[in-house]
Predict the structure.
Amino acid sequence: MNFLKELLKGLWKENPTFRIVLGMCPTLAVTTSVENGLGMGIAATFVLICSNMVISAIRNIVPSKVRIPCYIVVIATFVIVVELIMKAYAPVLHKNLGIFIPLIVVNCIILGRAEAFASKNSVILSAADGIGMGLGFTMALVVIGVCREILGAGTITIWGGKAMQIHNVDPMILMVLAPGGFFMLGCLLGLMNHIQSFMAKRQGHSYAPPKNMDCRHCTICKWGK
Amino acid sequence: MKEFLKLVVILTVICTLAGGILAFVYKATKEQIKLVEHAASIAAINQVLPPCDNVPAENTCTFDENGKSWTFYVARKDGQFAGAAFKSTSSKGYAGDIAIMTGINAQGNINALVILDHKETPGLGANIQKPGFKSQFTGKSIKDTVFKVKKDGGAIDQITAATISSRAVCDAVSSGLTVFKQHEIEITNQGK
């Protein structure tokens, strides 16, 4: 049951993009289209699962003073191993995901989960955490990618196949550029907070803001009163 | 002092292990990666050349021009020159080099081109891969056409909001064509 709990928390309750707000750099950079978001998500999920398991396995050997360099070595090694193997045995996949793989090293979700979860929990739970967080990250990137691609390019393309196209409307190119990423991320974060507060109210609870959130400037709790 | 030693030893062991794993994986995949890359470039050569009955990837001639080495892959059909392909790179891309394989046919027109590698912005510069842009080159005479974007007085319609990427593609194509024109006789006679 614990396994399932750790797996599911990454999807909504502790979604790495919308709740923990980690890994913003790849989120903003690659979500210009659905396929880029999906590619980055899958590649990061794979590395996240592997690195979580290894870091959890060595957690009792590594002294806490040198843990961060150790984690980074483990993560960087996995990234290169994944890239080389993909290049050799899955060239089509590598062509689609290739540019995202080196970016995973700098993705702070991976180091964040290593530090916050894998270094304190068993290998199996860490694997569950990796799968859940990875899927949550992928899901978030795909959602942002869908919104930005429809608004910014008027199409949805997944690996060469056009899934849909909007005709007779000029797309807002701004949405596939860098500022569009900030706009869309802000809108979706706001929407998610709104849903959260709406659901909490319906259940009769008062809405608890995310931990460490600055309450001085936030009015979410007062909505609808 | 004891703790200090322990930290150093553990970090060294982990890094050495990681290095060993990397060296092993690199060695194990090296040959396979070479094979895959070779297959990809052969596929690109065949894609840009007109139908032929020889193996263009093996029928090559190489020239040193402008400080670079240029390899032309020559296609022949029934003993006649059928076309030539070359790979060229432009460093004028928006985000790094753009590598292109261009094919010329026996009539002296561009047959087709394939973008081999680029790092342009998805949704903008990356549109150089779309058929709408690439097909503009097809059928253009290499002698009479100015391979520049329309903004610079050429014949190629640049992609909206991606003029730099469009320029880089034109730059890569025309730099290769210059070498082709200089050595046209040698190239057309290659493998006769």
Observations:
- The first helix of chain B runs from residue 2 to 48.
- Chain B touches chain A at residues 3, 6-7, 10-11, 14-15, 18, 21-22, 25-26, 29, 32-33, 36, 40, 119, 121-124, 161 (CB under 8 Å).
